[in-house]
Fold this sequence. Notes:
179 residues; 9% strand
Amino acid sequence: MEDNLNDIKPYIKKKIINVTLNLPYLGEINGEWVPCEVEKEASWEIYILLISNMSFLKIKYEDDFIKKSASNLRFISTSLNEILNKYGISIYKSKIGKKQLSLGYIIVLIINHVIRPIVEKWYSILLRYEINIEFSNNNFDCTTNKKIINDLNNMIEIFNDLTTILAKAIDIPSVMYHF
């Protein structure tokens, strides 16, 4: 029976997922992704990581989600790196042609062009906010806060798009809210 399955595997139609992500500093990334089984396993881990650690609704000026986003962003970045290390090159290498994306490639782009720039740009401010040192009604910098919120909302939108892509790879309906 096993031999018969191996004989027909090349003829089984593979799922092709069209990926479009608009990333800061890079612009729009387009391509096709045909997830292999290992990428599907990693997709599930990343999907669970994101839906359980991020708010997928826009942050408003008066919300306390900035504080939660600050700590979760570091946790998500570390966890994504651990997933990349766990699955290694099998989820990173492109399959066929330049338009063929891989899960690892997509995640590395998000780490380098979404998470890392926000952390580098806002880390000290987010850290002070997280531990409530600087932000009180008397010395609150509204302009800086609005810029942080804008960057975090852009990141949330990218994570929202990513979870929708991951949901297609693992054949589950997306539970994300698109705004």
